[in-house]
Write a structure and sequence with these properties.
Keywords: Cytoplasm, DNA-binding, Transcription, Transcription regulation
GO molecular function: DNA binding
Radius of gyration: 18 Å
Subcellular location: Cytoplasm
Helix content: 40-55%
InterPro entries: Integrase-like_N, TACO1_YebC-like_2nd/3rd_dom, TACO1_YebC_N, Transcrip_reg_TACO1-like, Transcrip_reg_TACO1-like_dom3, YebC-like
Strand order of the largest sheet: 3-1-2-8
Number of strands: 8
Largest sheet: 4 strands, antiparallel
Distance between the termini: 19 Å
Pfam family, one: TACO1_YebC_N
Length: 239
């Protein structure tokens, strides 16, 4: 198995699942998708993907429809995606994806978290190169073979295809998202969820005290309403 498999296995996905703000964050994704491509999921591939993710997160259909309707209102705040880069204690690189309607607020908040936790907010490009920007799709296992799919989808950009307890996962470079989404839809294969992740090229092993220092910063960042995802180069133990 490759790095995407190890990343998925080791990453603490429970953090995302446990966040009470999951629906709020999906709501932001809906707003950005509608503002970019309109409210019709049939003609807006990004919105289709967000709706699939909302379903996977058990977000009520009424909430989704209301979010789409609200996003179509020109008075609805537009969110801008901003990437922050920096270092946690012990040389751990941190990459933060945010979606904000107030850039000044977000910058001030992120800077304060780094300052309070002995980290350093970096400049653009300071750590992004340490991560591979990937896309992923989760599809049902039934009637499909992961090894066969991997061979078939190499031509569409797939780099890793593997099974876990919830289905088959396809990983590819970020810019292959549209191509793979279209091919899965053309084949009538259900997309359970999809998204983007930044996989560290190299990770660093820390001791328990050092891990606690880094996690203190990560937890502060993750609590911020503007933060969508946090990635880092700290080696994570399987749980």
């Amino acid at each position: 198995m490759g790095r995407a498999f190890e990343f998925r296995k080791g990453r603490k996905m429970k953090r995302w699942a446990a966040m009470a703000k999951t629906f709020t964050r999906i709501g932001k994704d809906i707003v950005m998708a509608v503002k970019e491509g309109g409210p019709n999921p049939d003609t807006n591939s990004r919105l289709r993907a967000v709706i699939q993710n909302a379903k996977a997160a058990n977000m009520p259909k009424d909430n989704v429809e209301r979010a789409i309707k609200n996003a179509s209102n020109k008075d609805t705040a537009n969110y801008k995606e901003i990437l922050f880069e920096g270092y946690a204690p012990h040389g751990i690189a941190i990459l933060i994806e945010t979606a904000s309607d107030n850039n000044n607020r977000t910058v001030a908040n992120i800077r304060s978290y780094f300052n309070k936790c002995n980290g350093t907010l970096g400049t653009q490009g300071s750590v992004e190169f340490m991560f591979d920007h990937t896309c992923n799709f989760r599809i049902p296992k039934e009637g499909l073979d992961a090894e066969e799919l991997e061979l078939e989808f190499i031509d569409f950009g797939a780099e890793e295809v593997f099974e876990d307890e919830d289905g088959i996962l396809i990983y590819a470079p970020f810019n292959s998202f549209g191509t793979i989404q279209k091919e899965l839809e053309n084949r009538g294969i259900d997309i359970l969820s999809s998204g983007f992740e930044r996989i560290p090229q190299i990770t660093k092993k820390l001791n328990a005290d050092q891990i606690a220092d880094v996690e203190k910063l990560i937890e502060k960042i993750e609590e911020d309403d503007d933060v969508m995802n946090v990635y880092h180069t700290m080696e994570e133990n399987e749980e």
